[in-house]
Fold these 2 entries.
Entry 1:
Amino acid sequence: MEPINRFVGIDVSGAHVDVFVRPDGHARRFDRDGEREALLEYLKPLKPTLIVMEATGGLEVPVAAAIATAKLPVVVINPRQARDFAKATGRLAKTDAIDAAVLAHFADALRPEVRPLPDEASRELEALVVRRRQLVDMLVAERHRLRVCASNATKAGLKKHIEWLQKQIKELDDDIGRSVRKSPIWREKDDLLQSVPGIGPVVSSTLLASLPELGTLDRKKISALVGLAPLNRDSGTMRGKRTIWGGRASVRAVLYMTATVAAQHNPTIKAFYARLLAVGSRRRSPSTACMHKGAHGGERDPSNGSRLAAGPRARPPPEGCDEGTNAGSPLAPSGSGGGVPVRPQAPDDEQASRLRAPPRAKSPVGAVAVPRPKSPPKKSFTPGRKTVAPQTRQSEARWRGYRRTSM
């Protein structure tokens, strides 16, 4: 008799855990904190082929960690995927029990790949990075309030809170630095990342905590994971604009700051950014392209597309920054009062010759500069006497149809 492939869906809420087993159709509910051992005792005899959970703001982390520790195959998916799957199968109602059944059906139909969950040290580092980001957001908000505040009594409280936030951010920076330096693997990756002009300790720690796949995937997969891969929007003869969306927003946020600094101080990225602007790209598109390069270390290794797999390379400190710090860079932590110490490294001869900008070619005597041709204006059509822009054609047609139906 062939073994039965069982697929389990688990929905985690604040108070309880709902479990659904497919194809048996059994449903159970456990207390989230008090009955975790009972949940494991229920799952082990089933020997499930796959267990699928959805991310619920961190409530699923201890449950998923306990299941993974019990050597059971578990996958945590994006809740958007689960909801879209439920709509595709005709399930519009939403309860905890229904969500567990949908997750079990999702596991049976799609069978997502089981990936190793982060260990305790990785979870601790990510918690520190997330907490620092929250404090920075609070600090920015308090500074805005202080700027528009008219009450002296309120200003005193705001200044006191700002000082406390700056102190907490500095302590978190120290804790993050100690956590990174404690691990030999993280320390090597941190040294390699910060050797790239434009990447400081904040960006490096965010990449280590929120993008542990860096160095194990090629550049296309890592860009899609972050949400920097342009997605098509075509249908028939229509060719829509390529846009980026999805992925990990926190990583994209720090990579945007990296691209901003690297476009000024990193010779490779600076030339790449200027070349995209010269061919007429919009300003945001070159920034996204620079973020795409920054996601895999600025330069790709022939083997897997990531600098992390190529070993460390020496890089000079960014131009315009003090020696040994990243002062003047937007990557410096808020409220730190200056740059954060980094490890300055001098490039070797081969690296320095590669980074040296090529000499600019001299124009021949008597050459006349040819002006860049302007893009043609947008076409318009003339219905009767009035000229209507293409953007308003559809709105006018909708308005005429609305008047016809309402009169």
Note: The chain is about 50% helix and 10% strand.
Entry 2:
Amino acid sequence: MEPLTPEERLLRLIRKKGGKTSSGTPTEKAVPARSPLKKAKTPLLVLFKKANQILTVGVAILFGLGAVHFLWGKFRSETPLLPETTGTFSEETPKKEEAISRKPYNHYSSEIEKRNIFGPSLQAELETPSIDTQALREAFQNLILVGIISGKNPQAIIEDKKEGKTHFINVGDTIGQLQVEDIREDKVILNYRGERLDLAL
């Protein structure tokens, strides 16, 4: 056995006497040192542990739902919603004898020749009003596009030299008999009785 150090002897002596000193007075009981791993359970610590458990369970549930959604979507995309049918839905099927009769090509070409399918229709020619070119020229020559304010609702700044006024206009507004059809980055498209005119910067 190794010889004991003075501190160890003193410690054994204190333990043998049951916590009494050599004078016979009781000593204070030594409070065992708390391990840093075994801290006192405070209400805040318990609350954090519960919150941690709840969050862990919530994340696990969300991960599981995501996996199910992914697999279910993959399964649904591979299987058709409706089974393929071999028959038709109508009960009556046309017979070969009742085939649709087709007319010869000459019949259709003669019908096409009777009509001018690439020209304007007669109705459209009757509906277009006659344009007074002199009034149009005068109204158009007196306008100067000063600027364009772009954005969600673009505006155009047009100066009327004849009246000496500056107009801030939106799409759909009119200046005299000219209606604003569209406002673009570099020009304004005006409409005069169906005739489109470009007013450029």
Note: The CA atoms of residues 94 and 112 lie 30 Å apart.
